[in-house]
Amino acid sequence: MIPSIGNFSLWLSIIFGSLQFLFSYKKNYSSFQINKTAALGLILSSILSFSCLIYSYIVSDFTVLNVYQNSHTSKPLIYKIAAAWGNHEGSMLLWILVLCIFNYFLFKLLNKKNFTLIFKALEVQALIIIIFLVFTIFTSNPFERIFHSQENGMGFNPLLQDPALAIHPPLLYIGYVGFSAAFSISIATLKLNNNEKIPWHIYIKPFVIISWTFLTIGIALGSIWAYYELGWGGWWFWDPVENASLMPWLLGTGLLHSLIIVEKKKSLQTWVLLLSILVFLLSLIGTFFGKIRNINKRPYICFRSWQRNVYTHIYFFD
User: What is the pTM of this model?
Assistant: First the structure.
């Protein structure tokens, strides 16, 4: 029942996202009310969907394929919850949740002076949300069911069973996804007429600061975990996930400094818009880089001893 509600919430999010995308063209009171309903509906439906996945992990509902592949009844509660975003399908759902949260904060910026800019930004943000929802539902649905219920799951990757890594992905994803709001505002700014004098850089700055801060903390936690858990050399000498997350951080640092110059000297405005677009594109690359690496790493032999709670995995790489 709960997984079905979570899956239904994903489809409901597509409806709300489509309403926001379609009615962002019209700049009137009725459009404002529809966008308000859509933004609120997106954040509530995404929270409900992610909560359903978390609940499925907590109660060890092995009728859900995602739970069966990444959890086990003997795992501590913290690792049951962390396993919800410690895989491709769950992490995509986390992406959608954070996207909808930033979409709501983007809507809260709307007023009579900036409605042209924010409406256009909401249109771009809604398009991003719809793309991720369609991708998740049809290719990476975390609520996919299995017909024969299993007594136990396959367990969570032992390398990921660490407190630092349990909170590392959410922080990293807030940093990644937060730049989507700056991206949407930048695209909307490019659509403005020359006679429309809207201080767009004021609206971009808080999203950049929040994203850069969370991305910094996420990278720091990931680096600490990688150092004491994996060590140096061998396959982990060049970890594509950690290196890929560094690229948007570097551009985000340049974007943050450039925004300060725009505020003080009104220069580098075109450069700020370009950086805002590039940093989000690099965030997308960094996210899906990790997905590609995990796909190429296939378990060949897996020995388990449930009594001792010891897992030994042997992998081969393409």
Answer: 0.85
